[in-house]
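protien #1 (seq + structre)
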Amino acid sequence: MGKDAAATGQDVRDTGHVNAYFPLFIPKSFLSKEAQHVDGFAKECAVVTHHRLMNAPDGSGVIVDPDAKLEEELIVRPTSETIIWNTYKDWIQSYRDLPLLINQWANVVRWELRTRLFLRTAEFLWQEGHTAHATKQEAIEETRLILDIYATFAEEYMAMPVIKGIKTANERFAGADDTYCIEALMQDGKALQAGTSHFLGQNFARAFDVTFLNKENQQELVWATSWGVSTRLVGGLIMTHSDDDGLVLPPKLAPTSGDRSHPQTGPEINDAAETLIRQLRAAGVSVKYDHDETKRPGFKFAEHELQGVPVRVGIGMRDPEQGQLEVARRDTKEKPLCPRMEQRTTSSTCSTRSRKICCSARKPTEKRIPGMRILWKNWRPSSMVPVGLSQHTGMGPLKRNWPSRNRRKQPSGVYLWTAVMKKEPAF
């Protein structure tokens, strides 16, 4: 997750959160303390029952040592609320210990029967935050703050338009009072949950008896939040921008900041390329010099197009003496010849291309959204069936009983997923 992890992590640290790491293995009894939480994850847990292997008596390989059974089974981390709140019980004693703002990068395991690369996998990497607060209002503000950070990252770094919403009761995080989310629309017209931020209320504080002494010298339960994004963002990035020729990466997230040089070979070519690289790096642009002599230029250009390199600079045999360069954009596939007169001109040309890609990357997504959403005016099945049949994103008015509705009760096949928050643009 390279640059996206670095950018998200920096935004989180800038708001006062600190990084930590908690155990991978969670005692089974911890999950039992919060009823809704264990119900939500029970079917996805990987369980460790033994701690040792042994050679099979018949020499056929290794087997589980029957004498190495654990006294209490360990759950491979599906999420970290229980292990963290068991720790917070010892860390939080007074209002002076609050707020407690912790973030961790970790891998988690959720046993998916049907996996989809980047979107739903048995093991994935994510960033999860867990915070404790003295008041309900502080916890709600924290939940909304992180949601805004995720939305800003998705739109400004990933160039992926999102809407902010609140999950329906059926989709709410197990153990949360409210789950806020950002939803993005993919090229196939389906919505993708790209990040979540949960207001946990006092549920985990109550389950693990986490209290603090307030300013009036009275004991109170702590208010909590948790939030996270995962490698699903990689899948969202691919499905939002890529085409039949390969990846299309926004420059802010591309491994080389959106600029690479792929010249042909020869002393003059190499000298021109080295000069160009120094100029670009002096301007703060990350560059990779592809001087592989075993591949033809056309093959190399296609390879970098497949990899989603935002801007490719090509130097032909006559380009040095003519003082020009080919600067190709991955998103539009334009390949204009640009003058290479001086350092300022060269670096400015490539940097300008990167900025234009950042600005224009969202436009194709924003243009296709109106044609992919289906609106309905009421909750009658006849009005909603076209949405279910199309498998596209539908939008319509909410009723007061919307949290109780689910796909099994709807003959239309429509599944209520997210309620758009007030003042948010509905795509």
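ok now protien #2
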Amino acid sequence: MKLVRYGTRGQERAGVVDDAGRVRDLSMLLPDIGPRSFRRARWRRWPPST
């Protein structure tokens, strides 16, 4: 699996490419994929509250 950002520029969503090559939406769990998303403090609260 590979983490990706997909969608139109400026409105990208977090996703993952599965083993079959399909993009799966992760935006309900992870608002964005970037350095801030992977800070240790964020993952201590996993799963995020809704």
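The two ends are 25 Å apart (CA to CA).
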